[in-house]
Structures are given as C-alpha cells and as structure tokens.
C-alpha cells in the first residue's frame, strides 16, 4: 500500500481536484483506492457525494483505527472508497498536540485504516501545521500543485526549507504545474524557470479547464467516464507518472 498526499501551503491551487481525479485514475487500473479527506471543508467528500461523521478517538495513547474504519464509505465508483471529512477535523491539530509522538501519529493510523487498499490518497488542508507534518511523515509521495506565477517559487522554497529544518526527505516532494494557461506569458516564463530550481517537477501539466470547474457541481470526477477531454487525459498522464515514480523508488 502506498500513501500519496495532495498538499500545498496555499489554498485554491488544485489539491482537492488532484486528490479526486488521481484516486479515480488509479482505481480504474483494477486497484482499490481509499481517499482520506482531511480538510474540514470537505470538498473532496462533497465532490464524491459522500457524508459521514468520522471521529478521531484515542485509545491507549494512539488513535483507534477501528472507529475510523467504520466511517469509510463506498462511492458511486467501483474500488474507490472515502473516509469523509468532518468539521471536527479542525480540532485535529489540538488533539495531536496533546499526544506523545505528536508528529507521527497519523502515519500509524493511515497504515492501519488503509490496509485493505493499494493506494491511500490524502486530501490535505492548506497551511503548515502539526496535521501537515504528520501527513509528510506518513507519505510515500507528496504531490504539490503549483500555479505557475512568480509567487509560487517562494511558496515552494518555504516548503523545501521546512523539510530541511525538520529532517524530512526532500525527495518526497513532487511539484507539478496546475491550472496552466498557456496564453499567459507569466505562466510560460515560470514553467521555463521553476523546474531548474526544483528538478522533481512532474512532466505532466494540468491545464486550466472549465470542465474541471464544473466537476464539483456535477458531483462526478472528470475521469469517471473515461473522458477524452484534455484535462481528463492530463490527470491520467499524471497518474501514470506517479505510478512510475513509486515503482522506481520501491525498496
Ligand atoms: N485545472 C483547473 N482548471 C480550472 N479550474 C480548476 C482547476 N483545478 C481546480 N480548479 C478549480 O479551482 C478551485 C480550487 O481548486 P481545489 O482543487 O478545490 O483547490 P484546493 O484544494 O487547493 O483548495 C475549485 O473551484 C476548482 O474547481
Ligand atoms: Mg481542497
């Protein structure tokens, strides 16, 4: 089982869109996928029309996986289940801070909850918090959507510095360009420059697309119908690239 996270310090960059579409793309290759929605706003749960009230309960100093496992819901899509978000998730930081080994608690929990799956995809809230640090320590790969603007370089540098300062492996961080508008000169220039400073950038770029904007409203991920639309193909390419990366880092 591999744990892949959709993370950025920033909001509104495409994390949830990635999590939902990647989950769909990976499960369509005959594998079981669990999407864990950690964002209290619950956009991924809503996109897949899943509700629930998962509670993080502590038993013997660690999270109880049994109670969370009961909250896992099937979706309309075969082999894709979701552990939905809950407004209580906003208190997860406080809960973690009260625990021993507060930076490593979610790793164990995700391993247990995700046992029956081939992939666990984690949709993260923005900001750098104890929750994010737990996710970093739990992940095999952290996908970072980057809108190609001048400011994005600074945000990526902050993240990389955090990894260095915290003794985390930078090789876990895999950025890719999100919401790309080729008609914008700033996008083209940034895409030219940024991979020089961050060589791990994926080749696949996700275009800005009104299909994606409509996705959440329609309640179905773009990929569900094996769509040939450009954005759907881009997400399938991205899933292929991610699988290749996970293969090559297998120990
Ligand atoms: N490639 C894209 N093209 C057009 N709109 C997009 C694209 N990716 C995301 N969006 C839209 O932008 C908004 C923010 O995306 P979302 O995935 O929710 O970001 P995050 O989870 O980082 O906050 C949503 O309304 C979403 O539908
Ligand atoms: Mg989101």
Write a structural description:
With 251 residues, the protein is an alpha/beta fold. It has one domain: 3-Layer(aba) Sandwich (Rossmann fold). Helix content is 41%, strand content 17%. It is built from 10 helices and 10 strands. The longest helix is centred in the last third of the chain and has 19 residues, at 230-248. The model has no long low-confidence stretch (mean pLDDT 92).
Topology:
Blueprint: E1 2-6, H1 15-27, E2 33-37, H2 43-47, E3 58-59, E4 62-63, H3 65-69, E5 73-74, E6 80-83, H4 92-97, H5 105-113, E7 119-123, H6 130-138, E8 141-146, H7 150-165, E9 173-180, H8 185-197, E10 205-207, H9 210-218, H10 230-248
Parallel strand pairs: 1-7, 1-8, 2-6, 2-7, 8-9, 9-10
Antiparallel strand pairs: 3-4, 5-6
The protein binds adenosine-5'-diphosphate and magnesium ion (MG).
Magnesium ion binds at residues 15-16, 39, 43, 123.
What CATH architecture do you see? Answer: 3-Layer(aba) Sandwich
Strand count, sense and barrel status of the largest sheet are:
8 strands, mixed
Strand order of the largest sheet: 5-6-2-7-1-8-9-10
* Percentage of residues in helical conformation: 40-55%
Residue stretches low in confidence (pLDDT < 50, at least 5 long) are: none
Amino-to-carboxy terminus distance = 13 Å
How much of the sequence is in beta strands? 15-25%
Helix-strand makeup class: alpha/beta
Domain count, please report it.
Answer: 1
Characterize the overall form: globular
Radius of gyration: 17 Å
Please identify the top-level CATH class. Answer: Alpha Beta
Subunit arrangement of the protein: single chain
CATH topology, anyone?
Rossmann fold
């Amino acid at each position: 089982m591999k744990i892949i996270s959709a993370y950025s310090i920033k909001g509104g960059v495409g994390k949830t869109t990635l999590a939902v579409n990647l989950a769909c793309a990976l499960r369509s290759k005959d594998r079981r996928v669990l999407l864990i929605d950690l964002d209290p706003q619950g956009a991924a749960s809503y996109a897949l029309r899943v509700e629930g009230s998962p509670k993080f309960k502590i038993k013997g100093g660690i999270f109880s996986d049994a109670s969370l496992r009961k909250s896992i819901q099937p979706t309309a899509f075969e082999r894709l289940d979701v552990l939905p978000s809950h407004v209580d998730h906003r208190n997860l930081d406080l809960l973690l801070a009260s625990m021993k080994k507060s930076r490593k608690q979610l790793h164990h929990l995700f391993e247990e909850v995700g046992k029956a799956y081939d992939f666990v995809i984690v949709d993260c809230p923005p900001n750098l918090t104890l929750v994010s640090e737990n996710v970093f320590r739990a992940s095999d790969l952290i996908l970072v959507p980057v809108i190609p603007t001048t400011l994005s370089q600074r945000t990526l540098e902050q993240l990389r510095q955090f990894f260095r300062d915290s003794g985390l492996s930078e090789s876990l961080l895999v950025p890719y360009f999100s919401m790309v508008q080729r008609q914008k000169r700033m996008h083209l220039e940034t895409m030219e420059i940024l991979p020089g400073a961050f060589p791990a950038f994926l080749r696949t770029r996700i275009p800005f697309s009104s299909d994606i904007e409509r996705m959440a409203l329609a309640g179905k991920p773009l990929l569900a119908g094996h769509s040939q639309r450009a954005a759907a193909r881009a997400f399938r390419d991205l899933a292929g690239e991610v699988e290749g990366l996970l293969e090559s880092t297998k120990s």
